[in-house]
Amino acid sequence: MIVDWLINLLLLSVGLLGNAWLWPAYVNRLYSLPVPSERLDRFRILHDVAMFVVPILLLGSLVQIRFSHPEGTLAAGIVLANAGWWTLPWALSLVGFGGLILTITTRLLRAQPPGYELATREVVDVEQELGYRPQGEGPHQRMLKVPGNQVFTFERNEKKFSFPNLHKDLNELTILHLSDLHFIGTLDRSYFEMVCERAASWNPDLIVFTGDLLDRQELISWLPGTLGKLRAALGCYYILGNHDWHLNCGPIRQQLLELGWKDCAGRVQEVNYHKGKIQIGGDERPWMGKAPEFDTSDENAFKLLLSHTPDNFSWAQQQGVDLMLSGHNHGGQVVLPIIGPLYSPSRYGVRYAGGEFYSSPTTMHVSRGVSGKHPLRINCRPEITLIHLIKSTESIENIETERESKAVLVPVN
To answer: How many independent structural domains does the chain possess?
Structure first.
């Protein structure tokens, strides 16, 4: 009797976990589409209903089975062997549970790119340093009260990436990677001014921003005191993202131009440093513009791609891109123990929520971003990153062999 109830409880737990994984996977792919969010919101109702209704159906099916078979039969066997109204919710939930297990397993086994090193990591508590909470008057204020919310802190880290084909004159070159500022007003301007101040203190050689700058058009007035304060010897380069796409991008680009930032959207900007050369391409697809055209015949040029979404990773590989910098997914914003993130607006789900990835010949860094439309961060601090380019002493062949030996399957959610 007790064993039977325990098995039923275990089966219900599997179903609930699977359902809780399946519908976020659906929403992730839904919001990767180049469709205005107001339209996509109409299709999100399937997620909202299923997350509430399916658990009731799962529990109801087990109760019905229990009362129909008082002799005590394994509920799992009856669910799988007898067609009934419960068949569809259980089938979907079991598919979701399979996806969850596969994702957890592959994430835990995935090796870091050979040559990658997290050099330094510092947490900056903006509220403590300012002496007050930098809270504005924007939307979603209730989220700021969630226990454990890390939205008023950010991580300032340095990461090293090795490239065997990097020109020797580019060795130790530093790139400041910023992404997803999301000026919406919930965090006030002083927060972003401190982020930019701490970023500028690195004195990087090159600065890039990979999209989602504004959620409110009038907050373009914040740019001079934030990105406008940043300078780099080799220049500042940017692309815009899907949240900017919802606004009037013309004035945004004009303001950034006046502040000294160079637009890489759909084009390639060339940077020369001594005898080293960097081609910086910008990709705002699928929301705006076209793909940049790299000079693939120039094997000595280091190819750097700025792509708001990491979904363009496979395209970057085809173009022979050396380093791709992205954002968009915010690391998932809420990262659960063991399970990891659930929500990531990508056609690959949470596969590229944040972190470092490699698939020959491209290394990709996906920033967790500085902020977001929804001010909620649990176990997933915002970040700014200083990237060090390192000339590897190993041959390309040895690097490839090592990376292939550590390759694993990628998560499917």
So the answer is: 2
Residue 291 shares a structural domain with residue 228: yes
Q: List Cα–Cα distances, 201 to 59, 141, 198, 384, in angstroms.
A: 56, 31, 5, 12
Domain residues for the domain of 12 are 2-109
Whole-angstrom Cα distance, residue 368 to residue 353?
A: 8
Whether 411 is in a domain gets the answer: no
Please state, in angstroms and rounded to a whole number, the distance separating the CA atoms of residues 380 and 311: 21
pLDDT higher than threshold 60 for residue 284: yes
Spatial separation of the C-alpha atoms in residues 216 and 136, rounded to whole Å = 13
Task: Tell me, yes or no, whether 33 and 57 share the same domain.
Answer: yes
Tell me how many degrees the CA angle 310-313-316 measures, rounded to the nearest 5. Answer: 130
232 and 380 together in one domain: yes
Query: Both 185 and 133 in a single domain?
Result: yes
pLDDT beyond 70 at 206: yes
Q: What is the pTM of this model?
A: 0.91
Distances 298 to 99, 166, 276, 319, 350 between C-alpha atoms, Å: 42, 13, 12, 12, 34
Does a cis peptide bond (omega within 30 degrees of 0) precede residue 286? yes
413 falls within a domain: no
Model confidence over 136-188: pLDDT tens digits?
999 999 999 999 999 999 999 999 999 999 999 999 999 999 999 999 999 99
Q: Residues 141, 19: one domain?
A: no
* CB-based contact 206:292 (threshold 8 Å): no
Burial of 66 (0-12, 13-18, 19+ CB in 10 A): middle
Cα 76 from Cα 13, distance rounded (Å): 12
Kindly state the tokens that stand for 41: 């919101």
